[in-house]
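pasting for ref
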Amino acid sequence: MGTGPFAVPMFRALYGTPHEIVALVTQPIRTGRGNKAAPLSPMRLVAQERGTPIFDPESINTDESRTVLRNYRPDLFVVADYGQILADTTLLVARLGGINLHGSLLPKYRGAAPINWAVYNGDAETGVTVIQMSTKVDAGATLAVATTPIDPNENAVELEHRLAELGGPLIADVVGRLAAGDLKPLPQDPAKATPARRLRKTDGEVDWSRTAQQIKNQIRALEPWPRTASSWLRPSGEPLRLILCRADVADVEGMIGEERSAPGQVVIVGNDQLGVATGGGVLLIREVQPAGKRSMQVGEFLRGQQVKVGEKFGTGGTPA
């Protein structure tokens, strides 16, 4: 059971085991703009390539869906990035229930956006966890864990790709050990559970009173959605909304006047650099995307816009 790209390495790894994949359960094909069908999901493409039957109900938890699942006579549901929560009556259809590949070191970051929040919070390490599925989201017993450091410059998209690749062989190993009866589940400690709620559009607004490192982490974490944005409050004209695509923490030790700069104030302009004061340090913006335009290196942006030291970034402007 899976829909998005995070599940693809797991899916391909299962084809390399001696076990039979009787079907892919995935989300239905949705219609996009102009009533046109959206692109096929990555999982659907793999199943078609392999000739695997596809079942794509609007709800996996109806009596009709459970009847279809029973007809496959499944031993085990293997789930990742599916998009629906399985009811206990649905999990009972498979002889061994279900296992799930989750993109965090559970019980940390239970919820819809574990990878994003790990980057947002500046964690040095994360990983993937295989759990037994239960009716409580991401709360089942742990079956296996793999860890990896988080590169201080990688964004959530890049990290998700690495975690997906990490999870493929881990899932294959767990399935083999379950079949052999050689696996002891380890209950999670609920006292250590932390939430990883679904991202909101408002999460992308920059609060310049936060530190430069925190804002850099925010930019990395909120790719590809909702992204991180702020507005250049131009002295003349409407505020210009900018998506901040990439940034670093500036090395400004000993910089004259830095202590007196208010959060959101421009303190560095020139030599293809744009530095903005924060609640702690200076954020050196490397790449931006002005509202309605393509992304560009900050040097190119500065050649077209006369940003000056002392001007401000803050809320306002047309959404990017």
